[in-house]
Automatic annotation (TrEMBL):
GO terms for cellular component: cytoplasmic exosome (RNase complex); nuclear exosome (RNase complex); nucleolus. Residues 17-60 form the Exosome complex exonuclease Rrp40 N-terminal domain. GO terms for molecular function: RNA binding. It comes from Grifola frondosa. This is Ribosomal RNA-processing protein 40. The gene is rrp40.
């Protein structure tokens, strides 16, 4: 895929076209829409070319252009809900009823510093982002909600997308050695949990070593690295 600069026109077409980070659809005077890039990087698309985005080593999530699943940290109460740090320029709001089965009398008791696995339900450049902790289609938790225990590690947004790729080697390689739980956000944050503290440390160090914005270690290097950690 070619490299692009901000402001370039992108010829992305599909019946179910979905634009990801770095791309924006604009309307012209003649009511015709066109797509431009909003950041520098490498133009990427899915196998069926229905999803397009700009791959870069950015460390800040831009919710207005990339709503999706994320890993957030609660930073304070706000009326009937909470203010949540999402790693963007502004904090987001999370309503107290935005959980599976939540009512006014039965809602989660989140504290400042609580970690959440939530998704962006509303992202607009002129509005505060809004979060919810359930699947939009089933209205079930489906893994969303408060993350208890474990450890959070920060990495580049590109590393998060690699971890979410089913064909990427890192998590299957580590999972073959010991059981672990991982929640990957699209905002440069990864939550890790395992039975032993040394396993959590090993996973976090591997993510930092493999991150393209850091060490960029390959699969052979990770295997040697794991052998030195006694896990």
């Amino acid at each position: 895929m070619p490299s692009v600069l901000p402001g370039e026109h992108i010829s992305a077409q599909h019946v179910n076209l979905k634009l990801g980070p770095g791309l924006q659809q604009l309307s012209s005077v003649k009511e015709q829409s066109f797509i431009i890039s909003t950041r520098a990087g490498e133009l990427q698309s899915s196998a069926n070319r229905s999803k397009w985005w700009i791959e870069s080593n950015s460390r800040r999530v831009v919710c207005a252009s990339s709503p999706g699943v994320g890993h957030w940290r609660c930073c304070g109460r706000s009326g009937e809900g909470w203010r949540v740090d999402i790693g963007a320029a502004h904090v987001a709001s999370l309503d107290g009823l935005a959980f599976e089965g939540a009512t006014k009398r039965n809602r989660p008791n989140l504290k400042v510093g609580s970690l959440l696995y939530a998704r962006v339900s509303l992202a607009h450049k002129d509005m505060e982002p809004e979060l919810e902790c359930f699947d939009a289609q089933t209205r079930k938790a489906e893994g969303f909600g408060e993350l208890k225990g474990g450890f959070m590690v920060e990495c580049s947004l590109r590393m998060c997308r690699l971890l979410l790729d089913g064909g990427f080697y890192l998590l299957p390689l580590i999972g073959a050695r010991f059981p672990l739980q991982v929640a990957v956000g699209l905002n440069g944050r990864v939550w890790i949990n395992a039975e032993e503290a040394k396993h959590i440390i090993a996973v976090s160090r591997c993510i930092e070593a493999v991150d393209p914005d850091g060490g960029g270690m390959d699969e052979a290097g990770v295997k040697k690295f794991l052998n030195t950690l006694d896990v």
